[in-house]
Every structure is written in structure tokens, then in C-alpha cells.
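An instance follows:
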Amino acid sequence: MARDLAATAPPRRGRLRVYLGSAPGVGKTYRMLDEARRRQDRGADVVVGYIECHGRKHTEAMLDGLEVVPRLHRDYRGTDFTEMDIDAIVARRPGVVLVDELAHSNIPGGRHAKRWQDVEELLAAGLDVITTVNVQHLESLNDVVQKITGTPQRETVPDEVVRRADQIELVDMAPQALRRRMAHGNVYKAEKVDAALTNYFRVGNLTALRELALLWVAGRVDEGLRDYRAEHNIDRVWETRERVVVALTGGPEGETLIRRAARIADRTAAGQLLAVHVTRSDGLAGASPAALANQRRLVETLGGSYHVVVGDHIPTALLGFARANDATQLVLGTSRRGRTARFLTGPGIGETTVDASEDIDVHMVTHEFTGRGRLLPSLGRRHSRGRTVAGFASGLALPFGLTGVLSQLHHTLNLTTDALLFQLGVVAVALLGGAASALVASLIASLLLNYYFIPPVHTFTIGETNNVIALMVFAAVALTVSTVVDRAARQTQRAASATAEAESLSTLAGTVLRSRETDASAIPNLLDHSRNTFGLDSVALLSRETGDVLARSDASGPRDTHGTDTTEVPVGSDELLILTGRRLPADQQRMLTAFAAHVAAALERDRLAAVAAEVEPIKAADKMRTALLAAVSHDLRTPLAAALASVGSLRSPDVEFSPEDVAELLATADESLVKLTRLVDNLLDMSRLQAGALTLHLAPVHLEEVLPRALDSLQDPDAPVQPLGLETAPAVLADPPLLERVLANVITNALRHNAPGAPVLVSASAYPSPEPGGRPAEQVQIRIADRGPGIPPADRDRVFLPFQRLGDTDNTTGVGLGLALSRGLAEAMGGTLEVEDTPGGGTTMLLTLPAAPQEEVS
């Protein structure tokens, strides 16, 4: 039974070893073959699945004595290619398989598109694989390598495939050594060496590639080290490299701490800077988002990374983050609390972090804001002055009023009930005025309860020990409950404020997103949203330099100018937001800063859009100029050369031509000049269209009259073109010569791509179909259908671009202006030109033109 289970169990996944090259030619294939020979000498069963030696004799010599699995031959577009035979390798079941060039693309139509997918199948079959790949083929570094070298890498492999390897070995070589190796002919053939050394293999390029490879492998080593420490429950920091963590609160001391931490990290060559902000899990005690955003930009400018972690106990969260990232040093700012506040509230975050830091060095950095905080910030309230006065008044009046009421009921109520009612009064005062007024109320209530209700009454003497304890408990409970109630009230207020801010910022983000979707400026909507959010009379965006109003939002209806206040908020370095209306409280400055940041981003986006709009015509003109030069250099030169050759031959005194030869040369010259004239006319018409200088003379035109003239202008007037139902179609409103040009160009294109022997069908119909006694047709649809290979949907818009030739039967004639000019002329006449599929195969060009009014036709 055990043997049966073992037989049906899936094979273990094979192990993968990757030789990562910093650049082509560093010797990764040679190293792989050397490892294979070493394993074979130890008795391992090694086969070569796929090796590409590129004619390097030293690499080919390493293949001696190694078994090579025959490759699989495949035909692709008439050419024979060879690929790795996965089935043969799996059937052979060796111990180790060598597979070169992991990022290689396979021949289309096979089992897998990429060779790394072949390797995955071998690993899944339980075979160990040794492979090679260059750093420029890693997916995450592909764009970076292209920027460095200027050479795009079309073959890539996902980083995760390489990261999952059991072993990664970097194959590296100094740039000068690699260039010498190339100069000796050990990498490329002699005719390619000079070009390679002056382009891809420049010292700067090789140095950058080498650094990318080292950093990528270092990151992989860090991952392995973290995994090992996690598996073995190692919590202590291993000082493999200096990592400096700076704790940010969003306070004004942040920039000082960041720069100090950056200097500490820079003292070592491989130092790393990490900034972390700890936010509470309830999201209530938040710092200024604008300040944190500025500090984050500073961290990233200095080459560090910014992180946010959630934790209610800040020292524990900081040290947990530091240990998780194997940090060696932690930078904190000294407390902003004054001496009195530190005495009353105990040790702060810094002292607690130092006590629990163990093997992490903690730097307490002094700054200009040290000791300048408020006294007892936990008792600081955001109540208005009116509520504060009302709270203290109620703290004085409520106990006396409650005493008067309870004195009248002392025969029916006992001491416990009296104490609970006083307790309820203290809670009410806490809700109204906060902890300070509740403290006053609890002290007065304790004295009144002692004097009027605890025997002996009307004295402050307490006769029974039990009553002494009851009074102390009352005072303690009153203070505790009032503090908790006050704190809960403040947290509720803060939560409501945070929710309101979040909703406002969400709406703000939605406003910006909708503006981007519609390509409209977001500034007017942002100003309107700012004015409505803060209840202002007006919000204006001004230029600091000129004082001009760039945008403005005003409230509708009459305004009360009495007590109007003005607030200025900077937007970037060149603009100001002027907010007019009520005086804004200080706690709304954070929201204002967020609004200003969105306005600054919208301004920058508008500026970039304006620049892009200015550049777009230049780009289009440059593209057209480049394409025109290419067309002139080939397509216009060809008929001109043929005409010149024919005329030159006729004028040559050294050769006597027969009448037939003379006629043939004249026909060639005439045909070439006609073709040249047609090309020049197309180019001129396209330039007029783009310049908006095309003059139209619209008139009713019958299709059965204009089609023969269009066919006569073709290069082959006897081409197979079959009209269908043109005589019954309504007349169209068009410019007759231009319509003739459109039909001639579209029919010429259809003939070029049509199936041999098949006619091009030209039909017309009214749209919508007129009903008896109803309205006449508004449009006429003309269809030019061929039986060619058709046009894929992805290319249907491209065929109408100037200088595009996407045909598959003749891609060498013409400048690719026919369809582009035809669509432009059709749109100039108020019509359209679109592409449809021909039923049964082929392409149909659908030309839609306005129908001529009946009164004009008659």
C-alpha cells in the first residue's frame, strides 16, 4: 500500500540554479558548463537541453563529454528553426538539465511562448535545471536598461521567476576587462566588435549594468536573510549594513530629523535611509497631511524611502518596524513638551523607545522646537469660549441647585441616591464644558454632599468611617467618569471632523478625476468646491508676479460684507489663493493646504496640457515632413527616373530605335509622368486639407455619371470594376472633381488588394431608406467592396494615416496617401469614410455623403 501511494504521489519540484550575467559576454554560459562538468565528475546525470555558443570556441570546447539532447526542428514561414525538446528531456529524466538564455522567445505556435515557461515545466516534472539570464532581460529593469543603453530589450523574464530560484550566482566582469575580451574576438565576430564597443558596450553602459545587477542581487540576498531570520525566530538585529530609521510626526522638526538621519546614513557606502510615520489604528490622532507630504518628498529626494505603519503604542510600533527592516539606528526628535508637562504626564515616546531599544542605537536629536509645546495637551479642549464659560458656570450652579432640590426630598431619598444624582450632574457638566469644569463641579459636589447629606449634617465632620470611604469613592468616580466622558466627547468630535475632512477630500479627488476624464481644467471646480466647503463669499486664484486674477468663484446672492475676513494661502511658488468671507479657524488650515495642493497640481497639469497642445502641431508637422521626405526619396523618384530614362534613351544619338521601341519608350514616359502627376496632386491636396485652404464647390452629383470618369483616370481603365444600382441611388451633394478623386483612390486601393480575377463591386443606397410619401433620404452610402485578405480591426484606423501602406500583396508602390486623402476629402464634403468587412471575406470601404436636396436636383 505504501509503495502504491509513493508511486502515485506527484514528483518533487526540481531545484533551479540561475547564473545572472551583468552584461552579455561576461561568461555565464561558460560558468554553467563548468558547473555541469563538475557535477558530472561527481557522478551526477547531466544533459544539455539547450546551449547557444554563438561561435565561441572556448564555450564549445566545454561541451565535450556532455550529453546533448537532440533539438526539435520546426518550420516557421519557410525557415527551419530548432528548439528545446521538452518531451524528450522529460522522457530521458536526467538529474540535471542545462538550459541557456532563460528569456528567449520560442517560435510562435509551440507549447509555450517563452523558454522560462519551458523551464517551469521541467521543474514541475521534478528535474533540476541550471540556466542563464542577463540583467537587462529582467522585467523590472527593462525600461531602465533601455534608458541607459538606448537599446530596447524585447525578450524579458518576470523577476519572480528568477527570484524563486534556489540559487542565484552573479557572473560579473569589470567593464575594461569585458571590452578587452571583446577586442580579442571572444564575444562577437570581428566585423561586429567595433560597432558593439562604440554603442552598447561603452564603459558607462557596462558600469551602470554592473551596478544594476549588484543591487538586484543584493535585494535578493536581503530577502533571503529576512526569510532565514523569520524561520529561525531571530529577533536581534544583524548589522549586515547600516539602515537608519527616522521617526516622523508631521511636526515642524521633521526636516531637521530627516537631514540628520541622511547624514548618518551617508557615512557608510551602503547606508540606507527609511522614514516612518506611525498613525493610530482609529485614525483620529492625525498629523498634517501637507507637512507629511513635504517631508516624504524630502526623504525621497535624499534617496530614502517613506513608510506608514499603524500602531497605538508608538515606541513598540517604531521598534517593530526597525527590527523588521534590520535597522541599526533610530533617529527621534526630542520632545516638544515643556518641563511641567513632562513632569505631569511622565516619560515621553523618546525615553520609552530608548529603554526598549536593546541592540538598536537611538539618536535623540535636539531642534529649535524642543520644549515649546503646550502645557498638558491632553486637557486642551477645542471648545469655544462660550462653551467653556457655560461649563464653569454649570459646574458652580448645578451642584448648588441640585442640593436645594435634594434637601426638600431628604426624607424620601437616602445617601446613595443623593451621591448618584450628584454623580450624574458632574457627568452633565463634563459633556457641556469639558474635564476642567467637571473637576470644579466634582469638588463642589463633594463638599455639599458632606455638609448637607452625610451625618452629622451642616458640618464638614464625618462621623462614620463608611461615609468617609463613600465620599472618597464618590470624588474618585466623579473625576474618572468626567475625564472619560470628556475624552470620549473630544474623540467623537475629532472623528466627526476627520470624517468630514475625508468626505470633502474624497469629493475633491472626484472633482479632479472627472476633470481629467473630460480633459477640462479642474481649477474652476476646485475653487467652487473650496468656497462651498468653507462657506466663503469668494475664492480667487491670483498671480503673485502680476496680481492678475487667473480664476475666481463667487457666491450667488447678496453678501454681508460686515466682518469680512481675507485669508491668503500660497499655491506653489507663483500663485496665491485669496479666500474672502468668514474668519477660518486654525484647525481648518490643514484642509486649506490640501485644497491648495490640488489647485497647484491642476495648474501644473493645465500648463503641461498647454505645452503639449503647442507641441502637438509641431510633432505632426515634423512627422509629416519626415514621411514626405521618405516618400519623395523613393516613390516620387521612381516614376521620375523611369520618365527620364525613357526620354534620355530617345534623345541618345548612339542608338536607333524601331518604331515599336519608340512607342514603348514614349508609353513608359507617359505612364510614369501620369503616375508622378497623380502623386504630386495627392500631396498638394493633402497639404491643402491640412492647411484648411481647400476650396469646395458643392453641387448635386449623380453617381452613375461620376464613376465612369473616375474609372477613366485609373492606371488601367479596363480594371474589373462592377457597378451595382448606381442609377437608382439619389444624387449626392459633393464637389464633382473631388468625388471623382475619392472614388478613384478607393477603387485603386481595392484593386491592389483584391483577389485575382474577382471584380471590385461599387454599389450605392439611400440611408435611411425613404418611405412613400415620407421624408427623403438624408445620406447616400457608397460601398466599394473587394475580396482581398481583409483588414484586422486593430489596423482599421491606421490605414487612413498618411504614408501608411499596410497591404499584403503590393507594399512597394505609392506613398500611402490614397486613403488618407480620400477620408480628408470626404470629411471636407461633409461625409465620412469607414472600413467594414465584406460578407464572405474581404474589405468594404463605406463612403457616406449627404444626399442632395430634391429641389436642387430637379
Residues 589-651 form the longest helix (63 residues). Residues 243-378 form a domain with the Rossmann fold fold (CATH 3.40.50.620).
